[in-house]
Each structure stands twice: as C-alpha cells, then as structure tokens.
Write a structure and sequence with these properties.
With 107 residues, this protein is mostly helical. 66% of the residues lie in helices and 0% in strands. It is elongated and about 70 Å long. The relative contact order is 0.09.
Length: 107
C-alpha cells in the first residue's frame, strides 16, 4: 500500500487550514483594535516631545491592532519553525556522518 498520496493530501490540507487561520481574521475583523506596546510608546513620546515627527511611515498599515498581533505571532512562528528545521537538519546530518550504514544483505 502506497501512503505517499495520503501524506501529500494531509500536508496540503493542514497547510490550507493554517493559511485559512491566518487570512480569515484579516477579512472578517477589519476594524479590530488592540493596544500594544507600540501604541503606548507612541503616547509617551507624544507627552514627552509633542512636536516629534516619526522618521518614516509603514508601507502597509494593518486594518486593526488584532491583525497586527496576528502578523507578529505568525512572524514569530515562522522564525521558530525555520530555526527548528535548521537544528533538526544539522542533527540529521551529524547522525548520518557518525552512524555506519546498515548491512543491506537480503539473505
């Protein structure tokens, strides 16, 4: 029995669920608001230096604070996934170098 099509189908289905979990809140909650550290820092800077002008503006402004939090969490998850993949890859390469090949005799 070949399990390759099942593995691909499962992987693609899980990928679609993850992408859906990331995109659906962006579409369903356009005016969400969540106060984070950036907003609080902006308020304090406004109190300390009322005439302060930011050096640059964001290229794309998220529709709400919840979306901003979601994007930050996705960025953190992607970074953690890449770091985990790298360490797993290096461990597998090290094990492949140190483990002798198995005896492949059929009889």
């Amino acid at each position: 029995m070949n399990s390759k099509p099942f593995q691909w189908t499962t992987s693609l289905l899980l990928l679609a669920v993850v992408v859906g979990l990331a995109v659906i809140p962006l579409l369903l909650i356009p005016d969400s608001e969540f106060g984070g550290a950036d907003g609080m820092a902006e308020e304090v800077i406004g109190e300390i230096a009322p005439g302060y002008e930011p050096w640059f503006a964001p290229l794309v402004e998220p529709p709400g604070g919840e979306v901003e939090s979601l994007l930050f969490a996705l960025q953190a998850a992607l970074g953690a996934g890449l770091i985990g993949y790298f360490f797993g890859l290096k461990r597998g390469q090290r094990q492949a170098r140190t483990t002798p090949p198995a005896d492949r005799s059929d009889g």
